[in-house]
Structures are given as C-alpha cells and as structure tokens.
Amino acid sequence: MELLAKIEQRTAGVAVIGLGYVGLPLSVEFARAGYTVYGIDSDAHKIAMLKKGNSYILDTDSSSIGELTAGGALQPSMDYDALEQADIAVLCVPTPLDHERNPDISFIEAAISRLIPRLKRGSLVILESTTYPGTTRELIAGRIEAERGWRAGRDFFACFSPERVDPGNRRFSIRSMPKIIGGRTPSCLEAGQSFYGTVFDRVVPVSSNETAEFAKLLENTFRNVNIALVNELAPVCEAMGVSIWEVVEAAATKPFGYMPFYPGPGIGGHCIPVDPLYLAWKSGQLGMPLKLIGQADEINRGMPAYVVQHIKALLEREGKTIRGAAIILSGLAYKRDTDDLRESPALEILGLLRRLGAHTAYHDPHIPACRIEGEQYVSQAAAPSLWAESDLTVITADHAAVDYQQIADHAPLVFDTRHATKGCKGGRIILLGSHSRTGREQENAQ
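and the corresponding structure tokens:
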C-alpha cells in the first residue's frame, strides 16, 4: 500500500479540517511527528492568528504554533484547495444539536462536500467529530463511493477515531491519551492504525467504525448520567441536613465498585451535554428509546434554574430581592482551568439573573471578555473590594488561579456550587448540596 510507505517516511501530507479545541492541538501533534499539516478553517480571525504564530486555545502554546508555522510544518489556510496536497484528511468539525435538540451534522456534510472533489485516490479520511453510530459509513465512505465511484478499502480508506481532548487536563496529553480507531474495512483500519501509531503512544483498534462511534458516546453518556444522579441527590441532601460532598467523598473510600461524581451548576462543554442525545436520537430511529438519557438530560439542564432559585432564596433570607442585587459570578468557563465557554451553565445562570433584574458581573482569569445575550462583558479584576461590594458571590467554576480565601474573607455571602472553598477559614459560605449552612458557617455562628 503506497500510503503506508508515505506514512512510514513521513512524506504523507495531512489536512485537518476544523481548527478548534480538537483540530488545532491535533494539527500541532501531527506536525511534531514530522508531517506537513494543512490546517483548514473558515474563521478568518483564527487563520490570521495562527499565521502570526499565535494560539487562541489555552492548552496550545503560541511558541509551538510560531515554530511550526515558521518552519512550514503547519500551514493554516481558509483555502480548501490545500486538500489537494493531502494524502490524509482528518475532520474535526462541530457536531452540535439543532433547535429541536437533534443531531446537527451539517458541518460534517459541508466538509465532506468540499473534500470529495479534491480527494486523491489512495487517500485516508478520518472523522474525529463525535457523532451517532453509522455516520462514517453513511456520510463519509458512502458518499465517496457514490460520488467518485471508488471502493472503500481499495481506492480510499475511511476511519473513525473519537477525539478525547480534555481542555485543562494537565495529567493526560493528546499523545498519551489512548486513541480508539475503527475502519470501514480491515485495510482501512490498517491505514488508520499505521498513521495514528506514529503520533500517539497507544492506539486501540476496534472492529468497525460503528464500534468506535458508539464507544465515544458511551464514555460521555456514562458521565452525563452519573452527574445527573448526584445533581438529583443534592437537594435531597440539603433537605436531610447532610452534605452531598461529604457523602460522595465517604462513598469514594470504597476501593472497588464505585466511582465519585460531583454535583454542580449544570454541565457544559461540547461533549457531555450533547453526545448522549446523539445516541438517544439514533436509538430512537431504531424504535428503542433510551429513557434514562432523557431523564439525565432533563435533570442536568435544570440545574442552572435550580441555582438561580437557590440564589433568590438566599437573598430573601438576607432581606433582599434578586431585582437590583449585585451578584458576582466567579468563573464563567464550563470547567476548571480552561477558557472554554461551550455550553457553560454559568452563561445560562448569568442570563437568568439578568432577566430577573440583578446587576451581574463576573471574574474569570481565563476569559478576559465575552458577549452574553448580545451584551459585552469584561472580567472584573479580583480584589477585596469586588467581593465586598457585592450582595452575593456565586462560584460557578473552581479555577486554581482564584484566591477563594480572599472571597471568603470579603464577600458578604458566598454561594459555592463547586466546593471550591473547601479548606477556607471563616466567611459566610453556602455550599450547593449541603444543609442551609456549611460547617464553617456553623462554627462561626457558635
């Protein structure tokens, strides 16, 4: 197979379509492995930044971008004609939900439409975008076969390899994360496994595209359902006068048969809120509805509203109303130590508070500015006066760079949805999923 020889010699050109949280880090790793990488994205601002040697993703440093672009190993462009230089094309485009919360595969369809006329015989096409089982067979291999008259495994090769990028994770790099891959045919799998074997420390082959697609959905459905479980239990713990956080930590001492999950203000990111619904949609097409996924989605999507109701009750207990209250959100990203705003529950919480008449602001060391519901917001500098002049500070992301003791010392009242204040001394801190007052506040009251 000519492609295998090109992979071994690193002479295969690699095109990455979509330079977001998945595509850009992958492009960097491919270039570091010795390939010439043609990075393609429709966002002119992103391409301009990359050509100047600047990164727009927190986990990908600008020095690597600058070095790779200057040497020609990474060539960012908006021109899809660059695909003609590639022997391998990796699709990393968004797969969101539509307005009816069904899979939106329009980005995959657009990418493959642009790829097919430029595809060389003998090329390898890998889909990394999370999607429902059958997508690679139907929308990638099926369309190439229908429109070019080629046969998968003979004239071209098609694989699915689910992305496992975890923004903010310092323990696992892209290279060290085990890489699942499935092929349309055995020879497709051989080509994909050979290519990824030159980039990743461990490649995990599976028997089909559908198996690889399903595995990714299972990973995130598992997390979604278990997060929903503790989110549902959090108000029960409050009513019973115990802390869900202490309950989870106590249960986690069992060395087998249990894995801890924690409550929060909702779920965010591209994967956990979205992927289970791709699986539920596909199973529904087969006449086999997945009731548990629907219930978990309902619980998790309801958490921002639950948090706002909690805020309303806390303020009323202080003799204040939510209308006109000064409320600071500490953390806007959907998870710790990242600048990722995708599906962040903090955005919904802030929007709900605004609509109820609260005066809202935020502090997030990783997000200097953003637009929320048409209004421009700028991150406020962390200072004792910021917290002291608020009626309530709500911790919605537990960034390591934030001084939570400072918040505890100066904020009149703190509502902690992430257990970020664990270990803080003093302060009036209310913890999500705990009876009215935390142990710290009880100690202060005695």
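(Above: one complete record from the training split.) Residues 438-446 have pLDDT under 50 and may be disordered.
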